[in-house]
Write a structure and sequence with these properties.
With about 40 residues, the protein is mainly α. It is built from 2 helices and no strands. The chain has one domain (about 10-40). It has helices at about 10-20, 30-40. Helix 1 (about 10-20) packs across helix 2. The protein is globular.
Length: about 40
Amino acid sequence: IADMNATSMRDMGKVMAEVSHRLAGVDKSVLSGVVKKLLA
């Protein structure tokens, strides 16, 4: 998230796409929960 200068929920799509690209086996539901918490 810090790498991408994501600051709000608007940036969540970009973050999700990038993390999915970097970490192929990541669980999307867990990831979205973490991203939501960090951007909230």
